[in-house]
TrEMBL record:
Cited CDD domains: GT1_Gtf-like
Keywords in alphabetical order: Glycosyltransferase, Transferase
Entry EC no(s): 2.4.1.-
Name of one Pfam family that matches: UDPGT
Family recorded in the similarity comment: Belongs to the UDP-glycosyltransferase family.
Keyword RNA-binding set for record: no
Gene3D superfamilies the record matches: Glycogen Phosphorylase B
Database matches in PANTHER family: GLYCOSYLTRANSFERASE (PTHR48047), SCOPOLETIN GLUCOSYLTRANSFERASE-LIKE (PTHR48047:SF45)
The protein's name: Glycosyltransferase
Domain of life according to the entry: Eukaryota
Length: 482
């Protein structure tokens, strides 16, 4: 990784505690690497199976002071099979609840480790609300991370303040822009987030995997004014990965080789390929997958489509296959189907990729922005519906597919299917040329350039990291003097 690797005097000692889901673990551990690159002593606290992924994905050998500490995962206590330690490896509500239960059971072993070797600061996912008590007990600052954009957090806070949980469309009140929503969040989701967000506000500050120019100064001011809390934009963190290999190693083990992926993309024209991926948690029905296949095929564009690992494997019968893929679809060779984990950051940064059909998970969104790739937005759950509006209504770098069903979680049956016509239409709007498409692409490129500038020396995120480190040092040194 092309980071600074500073050697410094009196480095800070920081512990990072990631949540058990790819979309939280990947960015937080990249942020941990950023601190280590500035010469600070960083320990990532993980569990055995997640640690295996991290060892493959993070260049521990490049940084002397970047370490991994594992605590046992309470598999037996919660009733999960050995090795299942992440939301990204479960597909039903029952197991989801078990992973969540594990986050409370991890408290004892993590507290034990932290209390024996206290750091200068703990950076923890907001799901671990108990870290608040621990940090207070040790009299050290805690930084919170929730994986959202600040724009989405402002939207969530406003919806909460006005109890806007009824179904149907509404305009989010009190935000710097009149954001029109075509769906309302499920109450269940808001209840789940509320107490975590309240505890988050008691932290020393919030770390955001975004850059100030994408959230916008107006949202940063709005957040600080309405909450009295400080947010530190340190991203986009995926940009610390420069080489093809580093990009491909991010997250799980990729289902395709770098060579296969690049040689397929290298043979395509600039901006001609559609990339379709719905993150690590969404599981669509066969009916929905079938509509995607038909819509994309009708658009006439070549594509890379990421589907669940088991789809199309040898043991899948023709009959099963035809439930989610039209007959002869693969044989027509209009695209590359990746079954399982795709090297997303590598794909998005290729010149041949012209648009991204995304569920608007925050990481996927900011990764597309970083690569200057416009989006067809298809939110499914969580805060993704707010991310969509940042992309389409505020920054104008994408078009909406028209998803209206706001689920509480990424899997499970959905009542509404996004039809092939809507998919084809949205893809054509972005990939079919014309004034609108050109404007969107130009704006996406400009924001991509700004993302690159933000992480360079003198850029907004680079400066924020320096300021945050200075702040934490001041707190530590003051404590020594006290
Ligand atoms: N990801 C990937 N390959 C995949 C699926 C996901 O590299 O096949 C990465 C993606 O680049 C992003 C993260 O996993 O960094 C998913 O996070 P996001 O917030 O987009 O969605 P979530 O999975 O949390 O719904």
């Amino acid at each position: 990784m092309d980071l600074e690797r500073e050697e410094i005097e009196k480095p800070l000692k920081l512990y990072f505690i990631h949540y058990l889901a790819a979309g939280h673990m990947i960015p937080l551990c990249d942020i941990a690497t950023l601190f280590a690159s500035r010469g600070h002593h960083v320990t990532i606290i993980s569990t055995p199976s997640n640690a295996q992924t991290l060892r493959r994905s993070i260049p521990f050998n490049d940084y002397h002071h970047l370490c991994l500490h594992t605590v046992p995962f309470p598999s037996q206590e919660v009733g999960l099979p050995d090795g299942v330690e992440s939301l990204s490896s479960v597909t039903d509500l029952d197991n989801l609840a078990k992973v969540f239960q594990a986050t409370t059971l991890l408290r004892t072993p993590i507290e034990h480790f932290v209390e024996e070797n206290p750091p200068d600061c703990i950076v923890a996912d907001f799901i671990y609300q108990w870290v608040d008590e621990l940090a207070n007990k040790l009299n050290i600052p805690r930084l919170a991370f929730n994986g959202f954009s600040l724009f989405a957090i402002c939207a969530i806070e406003s919806v909460k303040a006005h109890s806007l949980y009824a179904s149907g469309s509404f305009v989010i009140p009190g935000l710097p822009h009149p954001i029109a929503m075509n769906a309302a969040p499920p109450k269940q989701m808001s209840d789940f987030l509320e107490s975590m967000m309240e505890t988050e506000l008691k932290s020393h500050g919030l770390i955001v995997n975004n850059f100030a120019e994408l959230d916008g100064e107006e949202y940063i001011e709005h957040y600080e004014k309405t909450t009295g809390h400080k947010a530190w934009h340190l991203g986009p963190v995926s940009l610390i990965r420069r080489t093809a290999q580093e990009k491909a190693e991010r997250g799980e083990k990729s289902a395709v080789s770098v060579h296969e992926c690049l040689s397929w993309l290298d043979s395509k024209r600039d901006d001609s390929v559609l990339y379709i991926c719905f993150g690590s948690l969404c599981h669509f029905s066969d009916k929905q997958l079938y509509e995607i296949a038909c819509g994309v095929e009708a658009s006439g564009h070549e594509f890379i489509w990421v589907v669940p690992e088991k789809k199309g494997k040898e043991d899948e019968s023709e009959e099963e296959k035809e439930k989610w893929m039209p007959k002869g679809f693969e044989e027509r060779k209009k695209g590359l189907i990746i079954r399982g984990w795709a090297p997303q950051v590598l794909i998005l940064s290729h010149r041949a990729v012209g648009a991204f059909v995304t569920h608007c998970g925050w990481n996927s969104t900011v990764e597309a922005v970083s690569a200057g790739v416009p989006m067809v937005t298809w939110p499914v759950h969580g805060e993704q519906f707010y991310n969509e509006k940042l992309v389409t209504q505020v920054r104008g770098i994408g078009v909406e597919v028209g998803a209206e069903e706001w689920s509480a979680i990424g899997f499970g049956e959905r009542e509404k299917v996004v039809c092939r016509e809507s998919i084809e239409k949205a893809v054509r709007r972005l990939m079919g040329g014309g004034d609108e498409a050109e404007k969107i692409r130009r704006r996406a490129r400009e924001l991509g350039d700004k993302a690159m500038q933000a992480v360079r020396e003198g850029g907004s995120s680079h400066n924020n990291l320096t300021a945050l480190i200075d702040d934490l040092r001041r707190l530590r040194d003051r404590k020594v003097l006290d």
